[in-house]
């Protein structure tokens, strides 16, 4: 059954959720979105894989990207959706009802209905957000058709409980490796114990006091943690290697390079430092006039985003970007994922007012 | 071809080596040993699985067990054996030439030839020494027919370079487990890091100064080591568990219970203590008159054994026991395992003189 864009954004959320679209299986939902928008006279509709772009070409002096992903994490007995009430609150329950079919539904409804928004809008629904970064639809578009992402401001419809979350921390992963010499543990003194040599690394991590750094009015809380540790060969062998895998989340005031220099200074004296992964943070960009205007219009409070999100991809392109969408992010990926339907309506109303 | 017990102990070693007998595959070599001994009028020959016992019943007031295992670690292109010379030294090369076919061959030759030793002798060739303890042939006999192990003194023909190695350290393995609370590493402060909590455990291990303890004139060197460490769930999750697996090798002056009390006192304040494995040490027993007489007769120096060996099984039965055999123990299990043939002859001569 084709999507009904004249239905409410709540109903449209339900329709989108009931089209299963676990990452890698987005073709059907992309087909439906493309079909629903094609033929609307105020939109140019383009497709790249299972990513759909619909944009106005009104010659406004500002352009905004409003984007959201259409894939979900795997289903676990939580489709089809159903409505349920809890006290006075009505919820839509099921996979994708938080992350992030409501944001995609609101965008779809507004794309169809707002023929003359006060800024040009590039509406965007993309695939493969819930899996490894190299498959990410937005990243793919930035490589293949970056001109389609040109804009002065971007909004990602990720669940944020209706608040505006700006920027994000950077994240970096690295190994600190200690070495030793193997020996039979019955003659331990013939060897050198690499696990014992990891003690100063754990001491440094346990004693580290992470900073909280204010960036453009938002406070980003940093963290530094061993997330994995592995060492040893067998129960009777003195271990010759121990690997501590560390995750550093750093405020967007630091570049990735600066974060790396800081970590190398701290850990290179303690072991071999092997950088595994580095993603730049994103400044919130809330001092941009369009962002200020958006905040005022939607009447939402700004908060820092801690997790790395696709906001950082816009930031890397020089476009201020925020997360703004219905749904409680702590329920994302949960088996009892559900959204208070009033949040969907509120989000639609706020965006509509800002764009009208 | 049947074993030729009239050949030299060097030649007999070669014959035993060329019968492949990796642990679990000892039937053929046990058959050959049984066949070679059966019918000799001065010996009572018994079989239990692939373990062969041959004993004199001369009514002597002292009885000695002389035992050796007949299995080897897996073959790795190192059979059949060959003789090779290196300078003035002639070697027999190949799997089992050190661990421990020469000891088994010397015992076999002397069992056949010494019809009237000055003590009663229980000769013993057993299976499954190179694998887990629950399969060990000697342990099986101690369970099923302990009376066959009755003796005043025991000699294991394990390679000891012709020295006498007395007793052995005990060994104990335990986990020290720290717990935390999982959280997404982007919001690390919502969790508690179990790996960081392992820092005091590694500090205690790194700072520990193991003792050296003299027992009956031999100095046993202790050791305490983390041999394995593992913690963490994924690169973006604060870990909720870290397991440090520790091996404590303790002098035979301590009972296993005492060793456990010591380790619990040290580590229980730092994490959950889980005992995994405990094997008592064995006192050298070299103050026993028979042991002293044996040492004087073979003219060998006594040294402590560090690794846990089957000597401890005799010790547990109250029988003083030592390792004494041809071959350099550092070549045991090596692909270039080889024995200086002169060591075989020397060992045979010393045992023959002591028993005659």
From TrEMBL, chains A, B:
Record carries keyword Hydrolase: yes
Enzyme Commission number(s): 3.5.1.18
An example Gene Ontology molecular-function term: succinyl-diaminopimelate desuccinylase activity
The keyword Metal-binding is assigned to this record: yes
Pfam families xrefs: M20_dimer, Peptidase_M20
Keywords per UniProt: Hydrolase, Metal-binding
Domain Peptidase M20 dimerisation: 170-268
SUPFAM superfamilies in the cross-refs: Bacterial exopeptidase dimerisation domain, Zn-dependent exopeptidases
Name of the top EC class for this enzyme: hydrolase
Name by which UniProt lists this protein: Succinyl-diaminopimelate desuccinylase
Organism of derivation: Gryllotalpicola reticulitermitis
């Amino acid at each position: 059954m084709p999507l009904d864009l004249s239905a409410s954004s709540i109903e449209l959320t339900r329709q989108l959720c009931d089209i299963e679209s676990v990452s890698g299986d987005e073709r059907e939902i992309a087909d439906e979105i493309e079909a629903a928008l094609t033929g609307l006279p105020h939109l140019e509709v383009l497709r790249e894989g299972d990513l759909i772009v619909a944009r106005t070409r009104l010659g406004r002096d500002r352009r905004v990207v409003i984007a959201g992903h259409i894939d979900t994490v795997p289903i676990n007995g939580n489709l089809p959706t159903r409505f349920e009430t809890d006290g006075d609150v009505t919820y839509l329950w099921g996979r994708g009802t938080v992350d992030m079919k409501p944001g995609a539904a609101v965008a779809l409804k507004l794309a169809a209905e707002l023929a003359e928004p006060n800024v040009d809008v590039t509406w965007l629904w993309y695939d493969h957000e819930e899996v490894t970064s190299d498959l990410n639809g937005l990243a793919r578009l930035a490589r293949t058709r970056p001109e389609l992402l040109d804009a002065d401001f971007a909004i990602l419809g990720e669940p944020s409980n209706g608040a505006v979350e700006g920027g994000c921390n950077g994240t970096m992963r690295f190994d600190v490796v200690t070495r030793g010499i193997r020996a039979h543990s019955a003659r331990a003194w013939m060897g050198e114990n690499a696990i014992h040599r990891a003690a100063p690394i754990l001491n440094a991590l346990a004693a580290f006091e992470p900073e909280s750094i204010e960036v453009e009015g938002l406070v980003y809380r940093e963290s530094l943690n061993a997330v994995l540790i592995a060492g040893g060969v067998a129960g009777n062998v003195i271990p010759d290697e121990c690997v501590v895998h560390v995750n550093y989340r750093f405020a967007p005031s630091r570049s990735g390079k600066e974060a790396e220099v800081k970590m190398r200074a701290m850990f290179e004296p303690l072991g071999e430092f092997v950088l595994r992964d580095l993603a730049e943070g994103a400044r919130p960009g809330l001092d941009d006039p369009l962002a200020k205007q958006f905040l005022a219009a939607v009447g939402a409070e700004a908060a820092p985003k801690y997790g790395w999100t696709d906001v950082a991809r816009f930031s890397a392109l020089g476009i201020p970007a925020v997360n703004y969408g219905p749904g409680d992010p702590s329920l994302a990926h949960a088996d009892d994922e559900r959204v208070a339907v009033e949040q969907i309506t509120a989000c639609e109303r706020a965006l509509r007012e800002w764009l009208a």
